[in-house]
Amino acid sequence: MSYDLIVIGSGPGGYVCAIRAAQLGMKTAVIEKRATFGGTCLNIGCIPSKAMLHASELYEEATDKFGDMGIKVGKPAVDLAQLLKYKRQGVDGNVKGVDYLFKKNKIETFLGSGRIAAPGKVEVKAADGKTQVLETKAVVIATGSDVARLPGIDIDEKRVVSSTGALELSKVPQKLLIVGAGIIGLELGSVWRRLGAEVTIVEFLDHILPGIDGEVGKQFHRMLQKQGLAFKLSSKVTVVDSSGKTLKVKVEPATGGAAETLEADIVLVAIGRVPYTEGLGLEDAGVKKDNRGRVVVDPHFQTNVPGIYAIGDVIAGPMLAHKAEEEGVAVAEILAGQAGHVNYDVIPNVVYTYPEIASVGKTEEELKAAGIAYNVGKFPFTANARAKVNLTTDGFVKILADAKTDRVLGVHILGPDAGNMIGEAAVAMEFGASSEDIARTCHAHPTLTEAIKEAALAVAKRAINF
């Protein structure tokens, strides 16, 4: 069987790439090693975690806020088995949606492990061991990423878990220790803290959320502590002893020194993710990788081997599903002779805790390091009418604009529904908007998005409501 394009991996980057290629008239096939499509994101990552976050947030709201609004429901209880069933139903609906889209776009699918056997040839090995070889003009590697592991600490997905196991716990742990204060650690820590766990997060750095705007990170850290999450910053986990009834976790200062031992029922290792390229035959094909194991590509996503391309988590850049999607569309269009392009300066990033964090563009730290003069406009949700009546006043909006041109260089939102609100900022930045452009755009009242308008007004020190 011969194809114009074979995509290895059906996660957000892979399936979107395949669909766009099919739309452009290419005969396309997708190889997926899982029994279901959608990759890590839909099966064991973004989608199931958002279901757990949503359910746990509503549970906490019913417990703590309903009474303030005059709603009497009694003390709610957690039915974890039903919560997990709800989560799985959401996952099932999404993965079936990808299957439907493949059929709709006449994309052929193969379940099994894909390996580049030779130029223009991809071998598929099914679960039963049977193999077949497909011919293709081009291959796109979209195999995503895997859990990063701590040396000497085995993840069994029962007591010592990755994000995968943390989404399948059969009971709420009494004590949960999380290694890593990045997005995954904070999101899953929030879930289980709301459901009743005592959560401690150990982070090697002296701050949470590496790469996030410093002011946002500091305020958010205080909010999470107020919610009940405990942190041990500038610390590292060196040993997890699983020989007893409870786990004994040895924690040391990051720079060395006296260790302490903490007890936990569950340990979640959430120190990041690494590119997944195992078994793809890249070494035999001569495909270059960098010192972090990422596939090296040119501006058109082609590797050093003609006809082999790569996108998403296996190449440089933020490990975000939507970044992979944009790259998938771009490489499909490039293969069709069009001008596919990704603007890496406008890739939103969201932390789906409560409150949410959403950002796009540069942080203050990045602008200072680059020597770029900028103006800042900030507006707190305490001064937003909708946030007040919704009892969701934590956080603020911050806009960073070039001091000379007023062009928006970065937008950072800590607050309710930040993940949806950041879309406005991304569109504005994609079109090269100034802070004045946003400030002069009429925003509906009363809405949370008025805080963005007010932050834009504040760049010129003319906010109305603060």
Describe the structure.
The chain is an alpha/beta fold. The radius of gyration is 24 Å and the shape is globular. 44% of the residues are buried. The termini are far apart. The strands form 5 sheets. Strands 1, 2, 3, 4, 5, 6 and 17 form a 7-stranded mixed beta sheet that branches. A 5-stranded parallel beta sheet has the order 8-15-9-10-11. Strands 18-19-22-21-20 form a 5-stranded antiparallel beta sheet. The mean pLDDT is 97. The chain is built from 14 helices and 22 strands. 33% of the residues lie in helices and 25% in strands.
**How many individual β-strands?**
22
The largest sheet is: 7 strands, mixed
pLDDT averaged residue by residue: 97
Proportion of residues in helical segments: 25-40%
Radius of gyration, in angstroms, nearest whole number: 24 Å
Which word captures the global form? Answer: globular
Assign the CATH architecture of the largest domain.
3-Layer(bba) Sandwich
Whole-number total of structural domains: 3
Distance N to C terminus = 65 Å
How large is the count of helical segments? 14
By helix and strand content, what is the structural category? alpha/beta
Look at the structure and name the CATH superfamily of the largest domain. FAD/NAD(P)-binding domain
**Low confidence ranges:** none
Might you state the CATH topology name of the largest domain?
FAD/NAD(P)-binding domain
Q: For the record, what CATH class of the largest domain applies?
A: Alpha Beta
